[in-house]
Amino acid sequence: MKKKKIWLLTILVVAVVGISIIAGHSNSLKAASSLGKDTLTMITSPDYPPYEFYDTKGGDRQIVGFDIDIAKTLAEKLGFKLQIMESDFNGLIPALQANRADFVMAGMTPTPERQKNIDFSIIYYEAKDTIVAPKGSNLKQPQDLSGKKLGVQLGTIQEQNAQKIAKKVAGIQLKQLNKVPEVVQEIKSGRIDAAIVEDTVAKGFAQANPDLEFNTIPSEEASGSAIAFPKGSSFVEPFNKVLQEMKDDGTLNKLVAKWFSENTTNPASSTPAKGGLNLDFTRILPDIPFILRGIPLTLLFTLLSVTLGLIWGTILSLLKILGIKPLTWVANAYTSVFRGTPLLLQLALVYYATPQLTGYDISALEAGVLTFTLNSGAYMSETIRGGIQAVDKGQSEAAMSMGVPYWLMMWDVILPQALKNILPALVNETIGLLKDSALVSTIGVVEILRSAQIVGANKYIYFEPLLFAGLIYYVLVMGMTLGASALERRLRESE
């Protein structure tokens, strides 16, 4: 009887241990519940095919690529939904530090400098650097770059490697640019002699531009792509487990074959371009719906910014003319700050600093509207103040002698006349906001310019999508100008 009890107890213990091991393994892969969230936010720079880029066919706005497939597999195995955000490459690490995202996938290499500020997963793909140059340049080794102008993408491992080469090879001049297509265009235009670009990306540009060639250069130290996390992130360990499983079971090799084979290295390009400028707008015809989808967002952004900026500018102008010195000083100081600092700097501060200062995860569109409202309000306040002071003082004196309250007089008598007088200036400000809206592309808003840049990156071309975007802006501005002229004529008729 005792032996039976001992056996039953032994079987029970073994079963409990076995279940614990299985459950522990399952829990290591299903981390969503234990980490208290069900959605992972990934941020990337989708202008780097075949790692990550937009599928622009039929106007779709879906980000696809090698990194995206890996991220989807990771999220699925760990039990998360996946949300994808975008930014310029040099804004990815600031976004992690501002806790705007859970991880970055963008072909990023874990350098010692980066590891001081963020954590990395294990390497999931090894790549090599290449020298991209005009065909026949015979630039094959770092030593061949002596006395040359060399282009790199800002914030990348290629930039750091180029800086190391420049210390060893005399006469190299570095030129940093925001995007790889811009670097390649600088080569084609003759402003730089060569560029350092990752081999898989260089292959796509060489296929689409037969006037270019690339040569692989040996790496002095181990390099490769890894997933980046905020410092101290709890996701590093579960991500590493799944990545190792994907390596062991061949999943990663299948994705490498899918995205880096000869027929998918340039997945979105059409027939290769010939030498010279060679403008061929047929190459972007399938992607025109994608670019056009940026128009509503651009117009919405402009409308919100102008409306809110006009309200804020009116308030500031009233503070300046009330005659209350503290309020006048505050309004003038505010105007001097926003007129005296670059708009792009203001945009970056609002977008990246707001989550850290307030805890509110402000969206890119909200950050853009807020920044442009604050900035345009400073400029409009001076215009509106001038319009108010241009109204005949006799009207305000007459209204006050009749006992009309100051605010009612301003609202019903002075402001309507002031706005009528400054209408041309307000139209100019609106047109400026419409064109300046392209700046929000730097924080990932896919408006007209960003859409054109995405198409250019996917097609490995430069001029055609940008020229088409310029045509769109011109048509919008002309439409706005004609509308403003019609409104002015109508107002003159009512006088």
Mind explaining what this structure looks like?
The protein is α/β, with parallel strands linked by helices and 495 residues long. It has 19 helices and 13 strands. The protein has helices at residues 2-29, 66-78, 92-97, 112-115, 157-168, 180-188, 199-208, 236-248, 251-260, 288-292, 294-321, 325-340, 343-358, 364-390, 393-401, 406-421, 423-436, 448-459, 463-493; strands at 39-44, 47-48, 52-55, 62-64, 81-86, 103-104, 118-120, 129-134, 149-153, 173-177, 194-198, 212-216, 228-230. It has a 5-stranded mixed beta sheet, sandwiched between helices. Strands 5-1-6 form a 3-stranded parallel beta sheet. Strands 2-3-4 form a 3-stranded antiparallel beta sheet. Helix 5 links the parallel strand 9 (149-153) and strand 10. Helix 15 (393-401) packs antiparallel against helix 16. The longest helix is centred in the last third of the chain and has 31 residues, at 463-493. The radius of gyration is 29 Å and the shape is elongated. The protein starts with a helix and ends with a helix. Mean pLDDT is 82; it is low at 1-34 and 263-275.
Tell me the strand order in the biggest sheet: 10-9-11-8-12
Number of helices: 19
The radius of gyration over CA amounts to 29 Å
- Helix amount: 55-70%
Q: Please report which band the strand proportion falls in: under 5%, 5-15%, 15-25%, 25-35%, 35-45% or over 45%.
A: 5-15%
- Parts with pLDDT < 50 across at least 5 consecutive residues: 1-34, 263-275
Gross geometry: elongated
Instruction: Kindly state the number of beta strands.
Output: 13
Mean pLDDT value:
82
Q: What class would the helix/strand composition place it in?
A: alpha/beta
- Describe the sheet with the most strands: 5 strands, mixed
Distance between the termini: 111 Å
- In terms of quaternary structure, what is this? single chain
